[in-house]
TrEMBL record:
Region (Disordered): 346-378
UniProt-recorded name of the protein: Uridine phosphorylase
Protein source organism: Drosophila simulans
Keyword Ion transport: no
The encoding gene: Dsim\GD25095
Keywords assigned: Glycosyltransferase, Transferase
A single GO molecular function term of this UniProt record: uridine phosphorylase activity
Amino acid sequence: MSKSNCSDCTCRLANEVGQLKAIVNAQSRTLAKLVRQMKEGCKKDEEAKESTLCGLNPCLKCLQPDILYHLGLNTETTDFPKVFGDVRFVCMGGTPGRMENFAYYVMQEIGLKINAATKLRNISEAGQRFSLFKVGPVLCASHGMGCPSISILLHELIKMMYHAKCKDPVFIRIGTSGGIGVEPGTVIISSEAIDGRLNPAHEILVHGASVQHASQLDESLADEIKMCHDPCKDSYEAIIGRTLCAHDFYEGQSRLDGAFCEYTPEMKKSYLETLQSQQVKNIEMESLAFAALTSRANIRGAVVCVAILNRLNGDQIKTPHDVLSKWEKRPQELVARYIRKVLYHNDDDDESEQPEDEAEAGAGGAGDTQKAPAEEAE
Ligand code: R2B
Ligand code: URA
């Protein structure tokens, strides 16, 4: 075995031993906690719990029921604290398929299991707009394309967190983007979202007047996710940088291949070079609304996107599908590692424990993985 193979192998083994240790430690903590609870007569913490979100519409508490129309859920027919009260991570990405795959992937990564004959249930199927899957403390939602679409989803997910009385949920968008001067396949964790004028604000029109909301993202969360990248093991780079959010894929991103184009290749080159000189690493279409809405609610948020091309080299996506789908998994991998680390590696956190998946399909208790009835399985 060559020296470098040997050190690769040692590195991998050390990593695996570390992960096993963390799981064993987490299980010991769970056992200790159970024993403690038995001794105390299984007393549950009955303190009235409220969500940690801030700055929300004061009228929310008067909405009885509150109808989350696009999610096909309402507070009358669903017991939000019971079904969603344990949510700690809300992950979102563009397409229903990608988020369903992510839900299965995260389930495996955090050590949850469902019967092989059952499928995860799309909780927001009735809304017919977005998909939503729950895997223990992780919600996985699809957001469609662009700020208007993700804004609607975020309003309803933030209301869900409020009604469910969730504590400190972390929101993460995982997706694709066009890189600016970065190697295709690189993962970019956004430091902040900026608009086409390079302003760090999400502008909306309210009563016909422009309102701007700051689009900062959580710096420490970006660092924590970046630390889940292992340069020794991962064959790609992960960087932190500014993300430009456009309201269109073609003219809004200075492409030359849209149905319309009223600027020259020189103008495009000059714009993209300006972006590069301003440390913009990628362009996508949802980060402004994502950053603005999460920070307004006091929610820690991160945007983690893979660059599927380098825009300094062209506009069209020519990379084969199998390569693209490998690249799309990279943000998922980093985020799943982050979730796993928060759940199992945080020694100071008394709540860090191996979640169990004992609930019956669709029972809907907090801690549940929402499963479809077995007969719906393929
Ligand atoms: C990235 O990819 C999509 C456009 O193809 C858009 O949703 C985004 O942000
Ligand atoms: N998504 C975007 O919004 N732009 C790209 O160039 C690639 C993916």
